[in-house]
Request: fold
Amino acid sequence: MKIRKVSPDSRNKVYGLFRKGFPGSNFELNILQKLHKNDRDLYEWACIHTNKDIAYIAFANAYNGRDVCGVHLIHFVVKPEFQGRGIGTELLHFALRQEELQDKAIYVLGDARFYTRFGFETCSSPSCPFGEKGKQFLSLHNIQKPHFTIGYEPEFKAG
Reply:
């Protein structure tokens, strides 16, 4: 198993992974393809096993108004037949050690039982514009004091 940065040449493998990881829905894939098409700043890595992408993680800029205030986890998927083997844990550990994410506030909407193992804490400021049942908004390296709602790239509104 190896982890690599995603390049324009390797995006089709990631898109194939999304089709397997989100069966019956193109919502997440459409957002990712729009972000790539619009050349947004993404920090993205894929985990490869036998020359196939089996896991993917991506972060995009998070905004306070027009100012970048950190990054947020936008996609995190492990191919279904590889889930439960620690691959997602290893990929997230890897990503959090990368220079691109060092000293940045990192935000995530997800299962607190999973993300707190990596140092994420429940976040009340900023708040997240998306609410999902059973998911909490968490942060790592967050120093935001005044309350605001975090902004996402416009591609998330269109879905």
In short: Strands lie at 2-5, 42-49, 52-64, 67-78, 106-110, 121-122, 136-140. The first helix runs from residue 11 to 21. Residues 2-158 form a domain with the Aminopeptidase fold (CATH 3.40.630.30).
